[in-house]
Amino acid sequence: MAPQLAWVGLGNMGRGMCKNLVEKGALATPLVLYNRTRSRSETVASDHGSSKTEIADTIGDAVKASDIIFMCLGDDAAVNETVDSMLHEDVRGKLIVDCSTVHPNTTNALEKKVTGKGAGFVGMPVFGAPAMAESGQLICVLAGSKESCDAIIPYTTGVMGRANICYTDQPAGNATLMKVIGNTFILNMVSQLSEGHVLAEKSGLGVDNLHAFISTMFPGPYAAYSQRMIEGDYYKREKPLFGIDLARKDARHAMSLAESSGAEESMKMLAIAQGRLDRVKDEIAERGDIPSVYGVVRTESGLPFRNQSG
Ligand SMILES: NC(=O)c1ccc[n+]([C@@H]2O[C@H](COP(=O)([O-])OP(=O)(O)OC[C@H]3O[C@@H](n4cnc5c(N)ncnc54)[C@H](OP(=O)(O)O)[C@@H]3O)[C@@H](O)[C@H]2O)c1
To answer: Is the pLDDT of residue 39 over 90?
Structure first.
């Protein structure tokens, strides 16, 4: 019999991942939805219909009703708090999958706590922007016991994702270790793009000409973030796609890993990126998005934060 699935956390990433589970996950029963702010569950449920989704009033209800519980939440505190609530229920024989980006120590501690209660646990952070979650093009990084990972793989490639990186039979925290290191590439990429565009503007080449090079040479995330920078999306958007506090959390986790493994002296680019993320927060607070680093880098060279009037 197909397992009953639940999804906890309907933010920018969770919404798209749910959409693909519902549409392509071959679910035999409605996907159980839980989100701290109930209105988000209602919106997702109305998008998919009552034959495809069902709202749970509490995390406990979602857990009781389900065999596999996915979650995608903001940060370590949210994940710890949510798993503690899950563990008030009898979870023996169930499987909990965390798709959030958290510190590997958090993931390893969760794996110990959850498996200690007789449930399986998989760390499964994902790479890709919300648009990729929506289109089922994420890269899923899985770690945990083989039995637990095998139970999740049918919902990854071809459903929520386009590729998997599997650390089967390794500590669940190896998935978030990979994710945190991988995210340093994203943090440094937006800094690099910002510096390139500032130099293109100040030197007279012009950002459109540089963007043509970036799109040709580095299609994919470089081109997408470059586009959002030159269009002014980095300050115009009301609600961020990759909230600045999430990006700052990723930078903190990477720095903490560097410190605990004796690599902090080598993380010079990360330190610069981290300082710029903090300044985005000072400048535009919760509206800050990861490409808003462009605004900060512009001000470093005497340009206004905004690249367009209005
Ligand atoms: N955005 C990206 O580009 C991206 C890409 C890859 C991975 N990620 C990672 O994926 C995770 C989710 O990111 P997102 O962009 O979807 O974030 P988001 O849009 O800010 O959504 C966060 C979700 O977590 C919930 N939440 C936050 N604090 C909570 C708490 N204390 N208790 C219960 N629920 C809580 C929120 O519930 P409410 O609706 O009630 O606020 C919401 O459902 C993060 O770990 C992020 O680093 C993000």
So the answer is: yes
